[in-house]
Amino acid sequence: MWGWDATNGIWRQVLVDADGKLAIALSTAPLWLYFTESPSYGGNILALTEDTNYVYAGGQITNVVGKCLKSAMVWVAVSPNYGGQINALVEDADYVYAGGLTTQRVRKYLKSTMALVDESPSYGHAINALAEDADYVYAGGLTLQKVQRYLKSVMALVDESPSYGGHIMASCNPPSLSSLLNRLGW
User: Are 104 and 127 in contact (CB under 8 A)?
Assistant: First the structure.
């Protein structure tokens, strides 16, 4: 995931290597200026999300959401065990949301402590994709082939889309057009 670091005037990329370590690479163009990596997550990292200061990672083996400080590339907190493989993460100002296998629920973790705050009802199968807006978290995945919408405040199922007709494997929260244009310097 690439992002513009306006403070330092550089592009920043978060990567995952085969040993389950996070890496941050910085570039002003095609020339790499800096590269560092975290200690191992302890398993395969399948999902990443980030905010200004932290990268959050989820995956299999450990089945936790790890919180990694970007500036030092060290793990500073982990969530309780999700109960199975984590396939998708999304975050807002105060929470990280995780979805995956086994529990088939969206779990809500408080960013400051990574404590489990709440969880949604079962999606009905593996969750592979999460998105969020001001009031809702959206989950999509296999078998059901629908997007379910949950109210963030209580993690209650509000409604769901008709069947997509195929597996839902990924989602994104695109930046606003003005944000994108600002990042491009327009």
Answer: yes
Residue 177, SS3? helix
Q: What is the CATH number of domain 45-183?
A: 2.130.10.10
d(CA 137, CA 106): 8
Quick one: which H or E segment has residue 79? none
Domain ranges of the chain: 45-183
Give the C-alpha separation, 111 to 77, whole Å: 9
CA 58 – CA 43 distance, rounded (Å):
9
d(CA 34, CA 94): 30
- Give residues with Cβ within 8 angstroms of 177, minimum separation 6: none
Task: Say whether pTM exceeds 0.85.
Answer: no
Structure tokens at 4: 């513009």
| Both structure tokens of 79 | 């969530």
Q: One digit per residue, pLDDT tens: the chain, 186 residues?
A: 445 555 555 555 555 555 666 555 544 444 444 456 788 888 889 999 999 999 999 999 999 999 999 888 889 999 999 999 999 999 999 999 999 999 999 999 999 999 999 999 999 999 999 999 999 999 999 888 899 999 999 999 999 999 888 878 776 554 443 444 444 444
Residue 103: both structure tokens together = 């529990």
